[in-house]
Amino acid sequence: MFKSILIRIVIPYILGILFFLEEYRLILGATAVALFLVYMIIYKRDFYIYILFLLVGVFVAFISFYSFKNKLKSIENQKKYIGVVTKISLDNKSCIVKNKHYTLKLYFDNNKNLSVGDEIIFTGTVITDINYNKIFSKNINAYLKVIEFKKIGTKRDFFISLYRLSDNFKRNLIKIDKEAGAIINGFLSGDTEGLEEYTKDVLRELNLSHIVAVSGSHLGILALFTVILFSSNFKVRYFALLFFTYSYVVLANFSHSAVRAFIMILFATLAQTLKKYPNSLNILVTTFILMTASNVYIVYDIGFILSIVSTFGIIILTPVLKQKMDKRIAINLSAFIFSMPIILFLSGYVSIFSVITNLFVSYLVAFITIFSLITFITFSLAKSQMILYPVLILGNLFIKLLNILKCININLYIPNYSLYMLIISYIIIILFFDLIKINDKLKKAILIVLSAVFLFNFYPKNQLIISFIDVGQGDSIFIETPNKKTILIDTGGNINGYNMAQKRVVPFVKKRGYRRIDVLIITHFHNDHAGGLQYVINNLQVHSKFAFKPNNNEFIELKNNDKLIVDGVEFNILSNESETSENVNENCLVIIGKYKEFDFLLTADAELSLMKKISGEFEIVKMPHHGSRYSFNEEILKNIKIQNSIFTVGKNNFNHPAKEVIDLLEENDIKYYRTDRDGTIQIRTDGKKYSIHK
């Protein structure tokens, strides 16, 4: 059954979706062809089913893609909007607005006196410079910057009442105790607004982020509690089960993992009502197809994908493992084994104690979740803040427990865990646990080959790797030497509370398999280059710190003509010695790098007077000041021969990179790459040959 569903339906369907939506078309196409050939060998007569579901996946992606894009275009063309407020941020500067045609997220310049249930009419501009795949995955059609709005009424129904009660509960919890209140609200509704970033990082490191996202375990706890509560009456029990679980899904704002769990409960309940034995795998596959058919972009919702994959693992692997261990351990281990490849692909590391901590924490989470739900109901009726104190005490105790677990936790780091390694990992898992029955000799041969390919990833390649991390309008360059020494040049910015070091730089470094920085260089202390400095220092082991005109004794000052040599890689320093204002971009470090025959130039925010001092031929040049026309011109190009150029750039009001600079590069047949379009750009070289990866 598993083999038939997996190969006939699930894999071709997913491949069809990704083939249409994603850029991994070469890998996906090769995978599709390989699986098709395997399928023809196994099912010679029914291979058309494979092709059918591959085409179904493409068709579903096609319909969803044009549906969302057309709706977005329609929203962009509207002059006025109307909708009902369903959720408001704690600072009252953003909210979710819904009507029967679309769901919008609104942003305001300052606090607005809005309430859940308010019906408003407003004008605004659609924010376009954003990753709309992730926005669509949350069932939101657009982000709008509001120009003006007016309240025109108040709506009252079952949904709005639950949203209003949830908002009131959250604000009262956080008003009394911000951190404990935020985590209790996360247990109850999956909304982690207000939770400290440190606590979120701890949850991620322990692989426990799912406990503050309403998922199958939460609905399972509620379902079990409901069945026990109404065990005496069959009809009442099932009615109560569906009512309470559906209400919980509404409370969780229809998060995809909660909806997935509810649909599975609905199917299982229906099967039992009809006195049929429910097949969990069929229910899961049907649920997945139904949900992706309604919105294919949920494949970009990591919580949903982990929910599906973990449930899939529990269904097919638990029966194998429970023969050798306790059922509860088998369930947790099954979920861990099947979710681990995705976690490694996203973060580059996984907690080796994850199974134990999840097993230990799950009982506590079950108790706190039920206690939080009872507290929510009681508080909604009695309106007394005194009711909240017991559950807040539990929240504080849980946070202390997390900190203890963090101290004893050990993470397994697997660098360079790419898409093809993820695919190989799942094939190895399926064959190792005999989840698909094939010839024993063939299975062993495949396992040996795939394991060798997997392990080859860790074979030292003696390469210099330079990664220009996508940090928006800013700089952060991570360098790995052939012997795994690490250099970080700048840390990205911290703009409007969005810390690039926290969101992108440190996660990237950890995904590459490192927790240390051997050499940290700050080219200058402008926010877009050093705004994430403190977060880097707090979250990575930084050994040596260098900077241009440092303002404290932690840093060693780098001056003109200084040289650093790290593991055979030379960093020659060029700078102006003028005592100009700290705000002038001319005050920065330019780094001329060399590894064997490979030369690269890192120009920070240098302007023309500093750039004129540079001459030579470079395989890679990071364009100065994000492509400003005041930093690069034809005269500079006469002294510098460039093979490839890179713009580290994001959304900005300076027209970076300047059209004049782009035109100049194109006229001289110089290839250029942009982090705002290409994402993080990586250069790999053995000192002679080099390659560029996006």
Summarize this, please?
With 694 residues, this protein is α/β, with parallel strands linked by helices. α13 (327-347) crosses α14 (354-382) and α13 (327-347) packs across α18 (500-511).
General description of the model:
This protein is an alpha/beta fold and 694 residues long. Helix content is 50%, strand content 18%. It has 24 helices and 24 strands. The strands form five sheets. The protein has an eight-stranded mixed beta sheet, covered by helices on one side. Strands 16-17-18-19-20-21-22 form a seven-stranded mixed beta sheet. Strands 1-2-3-5-4 form a five-stranded mixed barrel. Helix 6 packs across helix 15 and helix 10 crosses helix 11 (280-294).
